[in-house]
Amino acid sequence: MYRIAAPAALAAALALTACAPHDGPARDTSVPMHSLADYGPARLAGTWHPVAGTAGCRAAGPVRFAESGGRLVAEGTLCGARLRGPVAFTAPGRFSAAPISEPLWVLWADADDRTLVLGTPSGRIGAILDRSPRPSPDRMRAAQEILAWNGYTPGAVD
Prior knowledge:
20% of the residues lie in helices and 34% in strands. By secondary structure, the protein is of the alpha+beta class. It has a single domain, classed as Beta Barrel (Lipocalin).
């Protein structure tokens, strides 16, 4: 008869739980959420690849933000929403992009604007975008930690 030591069994159970689909709320809305005060249109401009997100916010194709006629416009699919039109910054680090019904908050971006974390106060959207389809593991880990700090449930964003 083989026995598994209690710590090993616990570690195995936790590993399986971490891989299980998450079906609870993606974000604890009682946790305060924070946006970057210095994040504006110039930093958002360019192509972003969704690399992780909450359920219903899985990676699609790239999202492009470009200047057109003196304003920023979006094109692409983010969290199932087909973005095509103007982006309006409503506050520092917060913007609207139709047809998403609530403002997107920039929760974090690395110093070189390679990785970006977006979320909504309701928690319906939590997304990690990167300039590359394959971000570095250290930036992905930092992005996941930022989501957790803003109340997103571990495992709700993958």
